[in-house]
Design goal:
The protein is α+β, with helices and mostly antiparallel strands and 622 residues long. The protein contains 10 helices and 26 strands. The protein folds into 4 domains: 72 residues, Roll (Ubiquitin-like (UB roll)); 81 residues, membrane protein fhac (Ubiquitin-like (UB roll)); 66 residues, Ubiquitin-like (UB roll) (Roll); 305 residues, Beta Barrel (Porin). Helix content is 18%, strand content 44%. It is extended.
Length: 622
């Protein structure tokens, strides 16, 4: 019985010992500091003492430490290594006398072939990380070599190879001679673009190409085209691939890539002089020469574009909450493509306490789908808040342009019929008015922008001479920005303004009048509660509007931020700065997986009856 128990105990201990991972060797380095000491420790970090006998381990530690020191130009170092631990080695104590450091005494870096006239390669030559008289750093040499390799692939020099690349180290002279020459060969150009799987006519896809067949090859333009196709929402799968192998028609490109990424620093065993030549395949140049024979004009790279159509019907449901409107729900039905011209149709139903809205948008892309399109918008909206009751039906036809600088221009004509009650005013008005708008939005890290801005300006005109029920000129301006100082300080600013010029303000419906107050304008005041009033204290809305806000945020920990803010603004018919309502407050921001969640407590400085107000919202600032 006892022997059985002992056997089971021994077996359990044996299995436990097998499950314990071997510990990495701990290194204690002295004699050098900073990056050099860190590099020695890094070279030893994956070394496991249990894998070696003691003498073998000592030799391996020495070999790795010497290699780590040579990477920083120390070729004549003296090392005193002691292994600590009797039964098993726990750590290595390494005392280093680094000795003199090798410096670069001769530097020869050249680019031959078509790339010799390429500004990108010339920029690398102008900004060489290696300089004569400086200590030898192998990482800088490797970085330069890899930069040439990557640049050649990115810019279409698929037959490039290093005709010379070596480092000659003479430790007794503390000198190093570097020779690096790249023969780029010819630069390939874009060939024909072939499409497969697209439900959209090819002419529209070709109009979005950032290059033309015959243009110099540039890998970044393939990535840009992939992004453009993605922005159309026409496809669920996109592949844009250059057919490099068939373009080269030989193994020279693969050989060139192999040569670029192989290690080149091979040291001789003598130690008297260290030469690191490149082992070349002698047939590579012969193969490249054979390829060039019979070639007419520059070589080309065909591009294959494989596409998978997006689902024709897409549905989304969203729920949320904001202090301004309370709980809200949104249903959307999107049809990203209806036909081979790429027309799209989207519908949306929005429900909240004060507002219920159904809207639709039909988009007809033109020759360049991402830049030019016609838009048909229509909707029905019911709004009931404070002293406003409104039922509005509208139709809008627009021409849209997107410019290279990111600005979007829309020229539109809008028709709306609105049945409204605003305080003691009641009417039904039909408005026919053209308008023009310019907007631009730029952000980095859209979920929680660390930098960005949004600009918007619009101008609308209505006149009874063409059948509209009111004369007016209406203009709005909105500017928002986000900036960071360091990693923990974020600032958000906003300024908005609007004005209506009219001699029949009572005919202007509530949807075009100005109101302020709430989560996105002046915190500390309820939603759209700031505006001119009638004699009974009921809101009428204003002909003019101005708002401004500045908010400073500070990271508390992780995704949690604290905020302090000042908001000011009002809607009015005639105004002066004394008429502005101001609110101040503090808030908390949490960057959740679905976007920022904001909770603020704000105090209105000129409203004694409403001393504090909570504001809650989900989503980025813009």
């Amino acid at each position: 019985m006892r022997s059985s128990c002992h056997g089971k105990l021994f077996g359990a201990l044996f299995l436990t010992s097998l499950s314990v991972p071997a510990q990495a060797l701990e290194a204690e380095v002295s004699g050098v500091k900073g990056a050099v000491a860190e590099n020695v420790a890094t070279y030893l970090v994956e070394l496991k003492a249990s894998d070696y006998a003691r003498q073998r381990l000592l030799a391996e530690v020495r070999r790795r430490a010497v290699e780590a020191l040579r990477a920083y130009g120390y070729y004549e170092s003296e090392l005193d290594i002691r292994l600590v631990g009797e039964k098993s080695v726990e750590r290595a104590v390494i005392r280093i006398q680094p000795g003199p450091r090798v410096k670069i005494t001769e530097l020869y870096v050249e680019v031959a072939g078509a790339a010799s006239e390429d500004s990108a390669f010339q920029q690398v030559l102008d900004d060489l990380p290696l300089k004569e008289g400086e200590p030898l750093l192998h990482s800088k040499y490797d970085g330069l070599r890899n930069r040439f390799s990557t640049l050649a692939l990115e810019r279409g020099y698929f037959e490039a190879s290093f005709t010379e690349r070596r480092i000659e180290v003479r430790p007794w002279e503390q000198s190093a001679r570097i020779y690096l020459e790249l023969d780029s060969g010819p630069r390939y150009r874009f060939g024909e673009v072939n499409f497969e799987g697209s439900q959209i006519e090819q002419s529209r896809l070709r109009n979005m190409l950032p290059f033309k067949p015959g243009d110099p090859y540039l890998a970044a333009q393939l990535a840009e085209y992939n992004q453009r196709l993605s922005e159309t929402d026409w496809f669920s799968g996109i592949g844009v691939r250059p057919r490099i192998a068939s373009a080269a028609n030989t193994g020279s490109v693969a050989q060139a890539q192999r040569n670029w990424w192989e290690a080149v620093d091979r040291q001789s065993a003598s130690g008297s002089g260290v030469t690191t030549p490149e082992s070349e395949l002698l047939s590579a140049n012969a193969i490249d020469a054979a390829v060039a024979v019979g070639r007419v004009g520059p070589p080309t790279v065909p591009v294959d574009v494989s596409l998978t159509p997006a689902d024709r019907h897409q549905f989304e449901v969203g729920i949320g909450y904001a202090t301004d409107v309370g709980p809200r729900t949104q249903f959307s039905w999107q049809q990203p493509w209806l036909n081979e011209q790429g027309h799209s149709l989207n519908h949306e139903l929005y429900l909240s306490g004060p507002e219920q809205r159904f809207s639709g948008e039909y988009v007809m892309p033109l020759e360049n789908p991402l830049r030019d399109s016609y838009e048909l918008l229509y909707g029905l909206k019911n709004f009931d808040n404070e002293d406003t009751q409104s039922l509005e039906a509208s139709v809008e036809f627009a021409r849209r342009w997107k410019f290279d600088n990111g600005w979007i221009q829309r020229l539109y004509f809008r028709t709306s019929y609105e049945d409204f009650v605003q305080a003691d005013q009641e009417d039904q008005v039909l408005l026919l008015y053209p308008g023009i708008s310019w907007t631009r939005t730029r952000t980095r890290n859209p979920r929680f922008p660390t930098w960005g801005d949004r600009q918007s300006f619009s101008l609308e005109v209505s006149d009874t001479s063409w059948g509209s029920d009111a004369n007016f000129v209406r203009a709005t301006l909105d500017s928002q920005w986000i900036r960071m100082i360091g990693n923990d300080n974020r600032f958000v600013g906003r300024i908005g303004a609007g004005a209506i010029s009219t001699d029949t303000f009572e005919k202007i419906p509530p949807s075009l009048r100005f109101f302020t107050g709430g989560d996105r304008t002046v915190r500390g005041y309820s939603y759209e509660s700031l505006a001119p009033e009638n004699a009974d204290g009921e809101l009428l809305g204003g002909q003019h509007m101005f708002t401004a806000s500045i908010e400073a945020q500070r990271r508390v920990t992780g995704n949690w931020w604290g905020a302090a803010f000042v908001d000011t603004g009002n809607a009015f018919n005639e105004w002066w700065p004394n008429d502005l309502a101001t609110g101040v407050g503090l808030g908390v921001r949490w960057v959740s997986p679905v976007g920022p969640i904001r909770l603020d407590i704000a105090h209105p400085l000129d409203d004694e009856e409403d001393s504090w107000r909570l504001h809650f919202a989900i989503g980025p600032e813009f």
